[in-house]
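User: I'm curious whether this sequence folds into something compact or stays loose and floppy. Could you predict its structure so I can see for myself?
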Amino acid sequence: MNASISLTIPILTGFTVALLRDAGFFVSVNSNMEEESFYGKNAGCSFIYGQCDDNNREFCTVGSFEKKCDCYYHGTGQCNFSQFLDNQCNTYRTISNAKCYDQSNNFQNNPNYKRIFGVTFGLNSKCFNSSLIDEKYRPINEQGLCYTYTCTSANQVIVHVGGTKVTCSNNGQQLKVPGYSGYLTCPEKLDEFCAYKKLCPNNCNSNGYCNNGTCICMKGFRGVQCNQVA
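Assistant: Here's the prediction. I'll summarize afterward.
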């Protein structure tokens, strides 16, 4: 088993809520704030007791120099070694200026990148491992790129590449896009991908908490982003 550090969006799991209750530091904990963690979900006992395997998306091999999506597809990351993790339990840690949801601080967010790679950013954007590039340019290796997406009720993922939409219907499917060379790799588990919590604008300005895309404001604040005094 290994520790996991997230530099993107924190998750308050049911395990953490139970720990807070049992520790006695809080009189009550709002169960509506519990969130589902997909880290290692349904991976079996070997995920806990066995060796870390870079065939699982949770882990990677240090030294590969690849820039791929982190486990939750929040952004482009690099495989990092940490003295606090077990041997070979290395993970992709999102680069600070490569978070797909943070369009104000993303190195890909410039006109040339958007035109050549078809990328987009914002709360409805996630990272996809992709080698797509305008066919007028030389091919590139697969890397984490940001695209706007939507999920259907059948857990199909519709990805917007430039002005074109393509649909992920199968786990790990590789898609071609007209006008681009290379391919886009669909998420490993589409049902989990579509169940990831939705993000809130500006993280509710720290004046409330995010409940699957909706800000629940603390007393004294109001507004979609909890940025107004009540």
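Summary: The chain has two domains: 14-199, 200-229. The two ends are 45 Å apart (CA to CA).
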